[in-house]
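User: I'm new to structure prediction. If I give you an amino acid sequence, what do you actually give back? Let's try with this one:
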Amino acid sequence: MLDNELIALIRATIIAQEAAAGIPGLPIKQAFQPTQQGANTEPTGYLYKIGDRRVGFPRVSDAWDEQNSRMVHTELQKYETTFQFSALATQDPKAPRQYTASDVLNLAAYTLQSSAAIAAFEARGVGVLRVTDVRNPYFLDDRQRFEASPSFDATFTHDRVVVTTSPVVAIEEYQIIPI
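Assistant: Good question. You get back a string of structure tokens that encode the predicted 3D arrangement of the chain. For your 179 residues, that looks like this:
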């Protein structure tokens, strides 16, 4: 599975589970995009890829395609891909029932481990390997107020398949040359 396919699957799965988790309509965006202009004013979840880890060696298979007279060479590599999720939600002391960024992120983490999400991932050949604890550091925002910047990591397992073909040799020519 390619990165964009995996990101789209993760976003769609979280969005599909938002209502059940109590965060309906929460925007989920890919962080660090070249066209993003500033932070959202509403609570927003962000994700970005941290890295890939290849697991083991590629599984290699060759099969003859009789219909097209070609050799089909397939290499399948198992991957563990880790994403970091974060959220921004401005806290207002006058609204104690409002979700904090940490609340939003804990509910997003829940959606990734829900039965419905696991089934959706498995249907596409993706597994949820681990979802880490939510970290909750603070920073000084542009209005000189402390704001939380919680995050967690989630690792997904999937396969990456590369298929190549080799056409059949059409002409063979043997030569015996004396020395």
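You can read the tokens as a compact description of the fold. Here is one thing that stands out. The domain at 3-54+80-153 is CATH 3.30.70 (Alpha-Beta Plaits).
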